[in-house]
Amino acid sequence: MKKFFLSSVIILCWSCSSDDNKTEDPIFCTEELRAGLEVTVRDGIGGAFLTEGVTVVAIDNEYKETLENFAGSNTFVGAYERAGTYTISISKEGYRDSAPSEPVVVGEDLCHVITESVAVILEKQ
Known about the structure:
Helix content: 10-25%
Distance between the termini: 96 Å
Order of helices and strands: HEEEEEEEEE
Number of helices: 1
């Protein structure tokens, strides 16, 4: 009886120290929303930031979003927590519409998207 008990303890201790039971460190993510895209638009002659009357549209296959510009900011943002491959088009009255951009790939890590910044210059008509 004693031999059986001893061998059971040894097996239990061996399995407790096995590498198979290691746990990885927990990952803590913030609850904030992160924009996948940040777009700045500038005038082609003077280089001034353009925000008033500017429309910035991001498209990823069937997904289409008009990016937002918040008061006091020179940046248009959108595609919140949405990874994808986007083309960006920009329009403003008095300026030539931009051609769709090259594909912009927004990746993600374990918690959030990885924001991609894009700068576009518009030329007057």
